[in-house]
């Protein structure tokens, strides 16, 4: 499946709610070192979804300089049945300051059908700059990368919003700053390939590109418990549609109390 990890990260990271100085330095209460989340990506062209790939998100505890950081690794692979069509082996990494939940470093190392790209970004909160392979860029306060945004967002107090509210956020990717938002849609029960959950629902604003249509056509559900883990993401894409479901988890900080029924 073409650009598998780009789809996975684009889908799941769209739940981020980082948005400005009010959220700087938020305290982490949602995740811990040792957590691992596994997702299956299902792709459909004619209404029948097939399992096209897998993504895992693993959290560890390390140090960058003298700072303790959460080292999060997101790895995406196409399933072996699809490798002959388009082989994907992608790896994204972020190093998140445990005190502020701001990224200090971001690495993207992708191999998609023979196309390879390596990107290494260092974030400097004191100078509001991002140093990349190609230069130094000015960034706003509290900016996130595509992976750190997921973990930062999991600590937002979702009860502070009402259905229809927009929550803006800033993201740095491919040497550009994106000013986006998500629209909080409320709470509902969602049934996934893993089970039935109480969930929080969002519709993120997407920029029109080669994969996604622009606007609020994507829907994201996260667990309505203290973990706030992404459960399901659905979206149309340029050809067909994709569905991403959480299938396995280990090392959660809190019980997954939002689970109503397994499968």
TrEMBL record:
| Name of the protein this chain belongs to | DUF3108 domain-containing protein
* Database matches in InterPro entries: DUF3108
- What species is given as this protein's source? Danxiaibacter flavus
Q: Any idea which UniProt keywords this protein has? A: Signal
**Which first-to-last residue range defines the signal peptide?**
1-19
Its ancestry begins with: Bacteria, Pseudomonadati, Bacteroidota, Chitinophagia, Chitinophagales
Q: Which Pfam families match?
A: DUF3108
